Design the sequence.
């Protein structure tokens, strides 16, 4: 919760309590759903070459969103993805950490709708 919801610069009190509660429930539910796969020994298959080296293969319009309160690693990854995809656009969502679509739904929706309107 501290990492993904609060971010590195905000206290838990600076984030809406309802959001923290909802995300906590979602995370617990995702663990419950994944548990059978973990118990069965499931592992992610690695791509060769890895995804971060294949961004130039993406041929569709791309909007990369990142919250300005997210951890610096995610900000750097978002910039790398946007830089690696021809014509991609990077948008920072102010006042959001790792889950901007939950924290700032109206702003994210406006960004998405604007991006989609630009498409032929």
Sequence:
């Amino acid at each position: 919760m501290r990492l993904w919801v609060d971010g590195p610069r905000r206290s838990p009190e600076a984030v809406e309590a309802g959001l923290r509660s909802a995300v906590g429930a979602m995370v617990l539910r995702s663990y419950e759903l994944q548990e059978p796969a973990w118990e069965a020994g499931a592992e992610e298959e690695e791509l060769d070459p890895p995804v971060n080296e294949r961004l130039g293969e993406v041929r569709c319009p791309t909007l990369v969103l990142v919250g300005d309160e997210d951890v610096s690693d995610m900000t750097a990854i978002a910039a790398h993805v946007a830089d690696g995809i021809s014509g991609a656009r990077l948008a920072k969502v102010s006042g959001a950490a790792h889950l901007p679509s939950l924290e700032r739904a109206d702003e994210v929706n406006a960004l998405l709708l604007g991006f989609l309107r630009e498409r032929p």
About this structure: The domain at 2-117 is CATH 3.40.50 (Rossmann fold).
